[in-house]
Amino acid sequence: MPTQTKQFSYWHPHPAVTTDIVIFTIREEKLQLLLIRRRNPPFQGGWALPGGFLNMDEDLADCAKRELEEETGIKNVYLEQLYTFGKHDRDPRERVISVAYYALIPSDRLTLQPASDATDAGWFAYDELPDLAFDHREIAEQAHERLVAKLDYSTIAFQFLPKQFTLSELQDVYETIRSEPMDKRNFRKWIVARNLIEATGNERRNGSHRPAQLFRTKRPGRVEIIR
Amino acid sequence: MPTQTKQFSYWHPHPAVTTDIVIFTIREEKLQLLLIRRRNPPFQGGWALPGGFLNMDEDLADCAKRELEEETGIKNVYLEQLYTFGKHDRDPRERVISVAYYALIPSDRLTLQPASDATDAGWFAYDELPDLAFDHREIAEQAHERLVAKLDYSTIAFQFLPKQFTLSELQDVYETIRSEPMDKRNFRKWIVARNLIEATGNERRNGSHRPAQLFRTKRPGRVEIIR
DNA sequence: CCAAAAGTGTTGTTTATACACCCATGT
DNA sequence: ACATGGGTGTATAAACAACACTTTTGG
What is the SS3 assignment for A172? Predict the structure, then answer.
């Protein structure tokens, strides 16, 4: 291997391109994100965002989807490009441009398939993150900022919930991500006025209290700009 | 040259990385953007966004700034990362990832220094763009979308104006970009309530009519999120 | 005195906020 | 019967939208 010639040659220098993914979910009443332990230097043994190198025949978003599936076994979740991080010294090995994405995992799809390469992975509360490799903390913070902002003006919150959900569960999503309580009556008036959800007719009986109506989004799968 | 060996070799294939820049200004009552004519294939002779390859020792934003200065001679204007375009077939020559930026040029800094390489360049009204090379139309449209959105919730509009400006000029920026008229009294109430500008004490006498007060932004240079 | 752009208030409507009690259920 | 979370209305304040005339200047 070391004596073999490098096969890929160019007239001008090229940087490496990776995608890194900030994978959010809500677990145990907290906003959490998925980290994997690095098996190789640099930052060997440290925590990092899942991600990897772009293949030459795949679109950027497909690369992010592939990495997401490889690390978690999860497909078909909301995935959005966040920002591209390209400081010249962000990776000590070579010049690496990272196109960051973020993904939202509904709370009923949390059973992660351990990654094929047996790397260990874990969920971490967003406000108790360990040290992260590279500039991954900056990436995570920027993703969080975007998420908080999008709660206000888009239907992104539904992506954390199963197809059917109660209004209290929906309110919990908002409160958890914003870390602040909201008034129940005002929240319900607000969401109903947006005309985004409808009652399914079903109800959920949970504990020793009145059952809750179940709702669904009128346009499932789509994240729309509201307001 | 063709018989010389390619100097830059890697164990894995690497894409090329470019930055492309959507340069907006307001000229002749219209939102316009700067295009350059391509001297080489593909799309030789066609119009394209200014941009170019990333150097290995420069940050992404510095690459965009450099290209901006090379094409227009303009420095120190508002520049923001837009999105990264990475479809695998977006460039017929090789795999190219384009990190797109957009820049806003104040109306008093429009005298372009012809680019050092004598490429011809020109301003085009946004709603009368010619055919563009690669996926550059998509990039331009996405930049326009972002610009329209940011008018509402940031102080980006000031970036189109000189340090001192009248309220009518400011309103014109909003109207031109949105392509719709606004009520003068409501606009003035709104902008004053935001507490972003202050009168300079100077006034401008223009034609045969009442002179207008000149204002400045309280925090020049900074684009802030408002609302 | 005329043309042209600058400047200025009021009213009605919509949207946001604050706030407390009854309801249906399981144990 | 009680504990638990589900569900509901009203009053006040703030933001937004519609709308027309007077002022100052140059020619």
Answer: helix
